[in-house]
């Protein structure tokens, strides 16, 4: 069909020393037979500017995954390979490569190794890092790239070489999603024909308010410019320093500061709130002028907190994203780790926020980097080092900022490319924003005599952004920080509706002529997938290949069996579980088995086993059945308290049948007396007692996954060596052991009674006395240990409310619920329930328990 064409390409994902590059080849034959058939067309390094997106509409419609949009810097390519010409696994590998890059530390890769591949290529086909070094004329194709290569179709309306085959879009239900995907991506290819650039003014503000209420006007900070901004993004840190806010994420300060902001927005314009998101003391407010509201879509917000098992901590980040016209924007407000010497922890916090901030309403989820314009604000907490505080203050009084900025940790780390790679920051020509005596412009006069520092910063990333101003506002004095603001002129792509409709109609007319009807046909390379021995918290993966052997695209999906709630068991993950395969192409399915605290107890008791039957459904075709089997190596994690007290040797030394008998018997017969408490709990608590009582942030700071596995092996196998791992890892292992049981310490059937009695210590004691003996022993043993921990509060910084809140969610763990039920509950009364749980445990941390008898 004239004007509607496609050209074949071969893609290869190449890895070298942990760095990945997507090679795009032209082929003289389709499919290529030898490496000499291939010529490199483009090299796309997977770096901070690389993006890969799957069409969201085709995902939404019948689980179909049709086209992939890959972009790098200004280049945008659309591939008809979804879910991936070596199908979805290939796309999955690309996403994993992106994740590897996102989680990596240190300077970005330079990709010098690409030099030998870049001969005979025009400069616009090369990665930026290689442009200055391309001199080679030779071109060779390695066998490694051959193995990882796959054929794909690159849609191109401008080329007239190859017409689209009629069977590329079939008729009936299958082509609907494919049709929508083709429309979307053809429109994306033509975007420059129906869009133009509009410059909008964006105001970014950040202020650590040190827990103070808004007793002053914010007008000078938010509305001091002659013209109103189009967009406001205003971030606060330490909104509320009370224990209530820290423990329950609940504070009246949210409404107070929101009202203060709304009352201080620029009077020359009318604004509408886009979103408010808060995590403990971090809050981000985003407003747009009313004239832009109709063009805002795709609003989403997310939070990332730090702390052990995600339960505690007031550091982290909150973010809001949305699309304005045809430009995606993301605003991130963060509060990074404190203390002068902790710059590496601040770096870690930044990378954690980047890797964990995921807007899950999109498929695949969008990260921070997957946006055109990114604005990062907040109390980043980077300090001034290597300079005496007195000298710092002297330079500042003389407005001689440069020698001080040279010792600024953020500048140093940014220069070393360990954080904020690709981000820009404007010139700082204002006084440091921290630390002042509240209510004054006087530097910190406390005993610590902290050196002034530019803790509060604004950075940005993206093309078409120009900073207009960057300043502090020292007239606002209620906090020990000064607020900061930055103004930007940002180029937003706007759609011309008339031109859009005309081009859209052209695309529709071309698609209307493409139709065909065939039945889907596939082959699966393995219908009996067998995993090796699996262990708690260790994942294993197997690949499954689905090949489209028919003449039409195939839509597939793994569907749930009759009476099942899901298409696979809890310990199994299938990626992708649905997709779309073009004729002659293949799709790699990743099957991952991972036994965690939610599934371990079922496998230990024999209630479940590593066996599942998957139903692969072809839309318009037949179902294919695939079995998944494996052997689980049982662990103390997931074992009940009642079973563990009867096990005097490491778990792996007893027969599987005996463990299942212990788990399932109401009356256990044994020649030996049971322990008062499981030895595994004693080992962990004893280690913490001897090494962790004075450890700051005990039960607040997470441990290391690698050390958790070492601790698991030590407990399960037994060892004459000391218990491995740092104190924080041992503490997390203890919590994980308690959370992996089928029921919490206090059984589910007593939860309502406990919560109703939470204000009455006498009733709480009576409930605990009625617990089964070993559960009562464990509860009292742990409370006695926690009382000892709290006797060292001057060293470890813990307090009874914090500990009670954490262990309230452990001792009175919520029963597993469906996603909908959980969401509803969180929205209604979860905070009230958490308070009651904390109150229940609090009684046993602050009262004398000597009248309880611990033992058999």
TrEMBL record:
What are the GO BP annotations of this UniProt entry?
A: phosphatidylinositol dephosphorylation; signal transduction
Q: Which residues form a coiled coil?
A: none
UniProt subcellular location: Cytoplasmic vesicle, Phagosome membrane; Early endosome membrane
- Cellular component, GO annotation: early endosome membrane; phagocytic vesicle membrane
Rho-GAP domain sequence ranges:
660-853
Q: Which InterPro entries match?
A: Endo/exonu/phosph_ase_sf, Ig-like_fold, INPP5B_PH_dom, IP5, IPPc, OCRL-1_2_ASH, OCRL1/INPP5B_INPP5c, Rho_GTPase_activation_prot
Top enzyme class, one word, equals hydrolase
Please give the Gene Ontology molecular function terms for this protein: inositol phosphate phosphatase activity; phosphatidylinositol-4,5-bisphosphate 5-phosphatase activity
Q: What is its EC number?
A: 3.1.3.36
Record keywords: Cytoplasmic vesicle, Endosome, Hydrolase, Lipid metabolism, Membrane
- Family under the similarity heading: Belongs to the inositol 1,4,5-trisphosphate 5-phosphatase type II family.
The cross-references to PANTHER family, in alphabetical order and at most eight, read: INOSITOL 5-PHOSPHATASE, TYPE II INOSITOL 1,4,5-TRISPHOSPHATE 5-PHOSPHATASE
Q: What name does UniProt use for this protein?
A: phosphoinositide 5-phosphatase
């Amino acid at each position: 069909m004239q004007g509607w064409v496609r050209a074949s390409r071969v893609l290869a994902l190449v890895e070298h020393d942990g760095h990945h590059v997507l090679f795009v080849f032209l082929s003289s034959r389709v499919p290529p037979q030898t490496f000499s058939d291939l010529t490199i067309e483009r090299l796309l390094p997977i770096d901070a500017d690389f993006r890969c997106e799957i069409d969201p509409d085709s995902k939404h419609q019948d689980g179909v995954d049709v086209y992939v949009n890959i972009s790098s810097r200004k280049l945008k390519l659309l591939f008809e390979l979804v879910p991936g010409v070596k199908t979805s696994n290939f796309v999955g590998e690309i996403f994993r490569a992106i994740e590897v890059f996102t989680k990596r530390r240190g300077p970005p890769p330079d990709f010098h190794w690409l030099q030998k591949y870049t001969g005979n290529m025009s400069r616009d086909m090369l990665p930026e890092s290689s442009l200055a070094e391309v001199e080679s004329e030779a071109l060779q194709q390695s066998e490694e790239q051959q193995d990882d290569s796959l054929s794909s179709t690159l849609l191109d309306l401008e080329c007239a070489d190859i017409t689209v085959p009629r069977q590329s879009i079939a008729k009936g239900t299958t082509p609907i999603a494919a049709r929508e995907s083709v429309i979307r991506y053809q429109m994306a290819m033509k975007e420059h024909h129906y869009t133009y650039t509009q410059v909008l003014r964006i105001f970014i503000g950040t202020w650590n308010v040190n827990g103070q209420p808004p007793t002053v006007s914010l007008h000078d900070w938010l509305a001091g410019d002659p013209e109103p901004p189009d967009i406001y993004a205003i971030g606060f840190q330490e909104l509320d320093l009370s224990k209530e806010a820290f423990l329950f994420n609940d504070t009246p300060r949210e409404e107070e500061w929101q009202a203060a902001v709304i009352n201080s927005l620029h009077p020359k314009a009318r604004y509408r709130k886009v979103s408010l998101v808060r995590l403990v003391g971090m809050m981000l407010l985003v407003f747009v002028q009313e004239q832009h509201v109709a063009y805002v879509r795709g609003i989403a917000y997310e939070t990332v907190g730090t702390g052990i098992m995600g339960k505690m901590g007031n550091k982290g980040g909150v973010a809001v994203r949305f699309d304005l016209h045809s430009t995606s924007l993301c605003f991130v407000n963060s509060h990074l780790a404190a203390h002068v010497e902790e710059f590496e922890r601040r770096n870690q916090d930044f990378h954690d926020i980047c890797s964990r901030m995921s807007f899950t309403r999109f498929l695949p989820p969008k990260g921070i980097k997957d946006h055109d314009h990114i604005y990062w604000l907040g109390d980043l907490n980077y300090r001034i080092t290597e300079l005496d505080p007195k000298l710092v203050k002297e330079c500042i009084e003389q407005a001689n900022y440069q020698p001080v900025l040279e010792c600024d940790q953020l500048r140093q780390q940014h220069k070393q490319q360990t954080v904020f790679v690709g981000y820009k920051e404007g010139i700082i020509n204002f006084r440091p924003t921290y630390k002042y005596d509240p209510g004054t412009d006087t530097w910190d006069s406390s005993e610590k005599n902290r050196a002034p520092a530019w803790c509060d910063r604004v950075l940005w990333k993206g093309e078409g952004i120009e900073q207009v101003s960057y300043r502090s506002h020292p007239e606002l004095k209620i906090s020990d920080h000064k607020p900061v603001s930055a103004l930007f002129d940002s180029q937003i792509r706007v759609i011309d509706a008339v031109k859009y409709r005309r081009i859209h109609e052209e695309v529709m007319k071309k698609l209307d002529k493409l139709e065909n009807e065939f039945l889907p046909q596939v082959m699966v390379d393995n219908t009996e997938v067998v995993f090796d021995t699996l262990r708690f918290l260790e994942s294993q993966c197997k690949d499954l290949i689905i090949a489209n052997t028919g003449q039409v695209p195939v839509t597939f999906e793994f569907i749930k069996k009759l009476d099942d709630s899901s298409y696979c068991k809890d310990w199994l993950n299938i990626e992708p579980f649905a997709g779309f395969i073009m004729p002659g192409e293949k799709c790699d399915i990743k099957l991952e088995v991972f036994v965690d605290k939610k599934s371990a107890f079922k496998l230990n008791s024999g209630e479940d086993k590593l066996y599942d039957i998957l139903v692969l459904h072809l839309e318009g075709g037949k179902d294919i059945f695939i079995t998944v089997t494996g052997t689980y190596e049982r662990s103390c994690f997931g074992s009940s308290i009642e079973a563990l007290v009867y096990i005097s040797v490491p778990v792996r030394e007893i027969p599987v049948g005996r463990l299942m008998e212990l788990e399932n018997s109401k009356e256990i017969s044994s020649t030996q007396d049971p322990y008062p408490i499981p030895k595994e709990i004693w080992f962990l608590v004893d280690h913490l007692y001897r090494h962790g009582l004075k450890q700051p942030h005990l039960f607040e700071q997470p441990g290391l996954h690698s050390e958790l596995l070492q601790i698991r092996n030590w407990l399960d196998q037994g060892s004459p060596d000391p218990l491995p791992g740092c104190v924080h890892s041992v503490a997390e292992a203890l919590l994980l052991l308690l959370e992996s049981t089928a029921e919490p310490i206090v059984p589910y059937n007593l939860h309502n009674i406990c919560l109703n009695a939470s204000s009455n210590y006498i009733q709480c004691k009576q409930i605990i006395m009625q617990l089964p003996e070993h559960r009562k022993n464990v509860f009292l043993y742990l409370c006695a240990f926690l009382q000892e921990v709290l006797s060292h509060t001057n060293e470890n910084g813990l307090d009874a409310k914090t500990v009670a809140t954490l262990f309230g969610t452990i001792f009175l763990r919520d029963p597993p619920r469906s996603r909908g039920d959980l969401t509803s509950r969180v929205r209604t009364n979860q905070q009230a329930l958490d308070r009651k749980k904390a109150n229940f445990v609090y009684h046993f941390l602050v009262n004398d328990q000597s009248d309880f008898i611990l033992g058999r």
